[in-house]
Amino acid sequence: MQTTVDSLRLAWRLRRAWWFTATARTRARFARTLLGSFWLGFSNLLSISALSFVYGAVFKVADFEAYVVYLGIGLVVWGLIAACVSSAASLFDANSRNILNNNLHPVFYTLEEWVFQLQTFSQSFALVLLALSFVQPSLLIHLFTAGLLPLLNLLLFVYWVPLLICLLGARYRDLYQLVPILLQLIFLLSPILYVKQNLGKLIWIASWNPFYRVLDNFRYALISGSVALRQEVVLLLVNLLGVWIGLVLLERQRSRLPFLF
Description:
This protein is mainly alpha-helical. It has 13 helices and no strands.
């Protein structure tokens, strides 16, 4: 247990380093572009516009404006979850040279990737939320009145779940091929493009889908301005436990990582 506490202390001491490297990656991503990170939000807005018209017609939605907000928030949040999970399977493999040649704790690479994905999400989400606020002006107010705890749960979730996938991916390379397939299936089975009631008797799929639950809790808080406080507190405890378990497993696997490449 003490070694895990030491890992947390080390991560805190190195916070400027992994934040800087993640920020450098974000800046390099849009080097020599005129619009820079604006492209993140702009591409999402194009996707939301196209999919809203198509699936709005397919599902014959009665309230098109409400559907645009519902789909838009769902797509942006799913983009964060999918990006974190898909990059996790090969994270240690991508940093294998650094892991082999220095003694830097591998928690550094997990935090760097996490912050990089959060920066990408925040840049995209800010523009999308601003655009959707013209449709539903209360979204910005709901973000601060009801959305902070669900947002915290979302951010913790996209750290510890990818962390577990990192550890599995370092040992089993097949996971790199399997993760995109599973993500596609989860996306199609999750009520992101459609409402949960359209699942009919299969509604239990959404109820037992942790990826959807963390997404829907945040989306519901933004749209409705209310939050299931007891449920969010329980979820927070689960997420904190997940982070702790992930760090414990990472500490145990640390000495074996160089021999897996």
